[in-house]
Amino acid sequence: xxxxVGVGSFIKVLLRNFDVLAGPVVSLVYPLHAxxxxxxxxxxxxxxxxxxxxxxxxxxxxxxxxxxxxxEWVPIWSYAKLILTxxxxxxxxxxxxxxxxxFVRPLYVNPQSINIWYVPKKMDFFRKPDDVLTAAExxxxxxxxxxxxxxxxxxxxxxxxxxxxxxxxxxYLYEGNFKSY
Length: 181
Known about the structure:
Strand content: under 5%
Number of strands: 0
Oligomer: single chain
Largest sheet: none
Distance between the termini: 83 Å
Radius of gyration: 29 Å
Order of helices and strands: HHHHHHHH
Structural class: mainly alpha
Number of helices: 8
Shape: elongated
């Protein structure tokens, strides 16, 4: 009778910690084994499957590390991650291929340029939208062409200075004056 209680308790502990026990097996052990097998075959399809999985696993890990403080407030995160990982790992579902083809690949094949010189666009019925040229014209109208020329010359000087800049933020010239100790 004592051994039945022990087995029951053991099964309860296993079920309560299923995500902790199954997570590494599903997300690391099986994919590592399958990746090594894929390397040893002549087929490129299985190589692509596992490379795709590892890219997505890396992205998922980066997501977890970045948002760890928020994720710890989601009580079902470990189970959701386990289900997602199973969907990505099991070749029958082709989850890794689906996510890669529909979400990751478009970012690399068709990269969208990001404009770091943000000028807000305002549209009025009676005005044209604000853009860089419109902003420059507006600045010239408010401050005069001389002020605009000064800005351009300062930008040109700083560009020329930065070409000779070192990682220390200042121009580095070798003078050759060394003392020997």
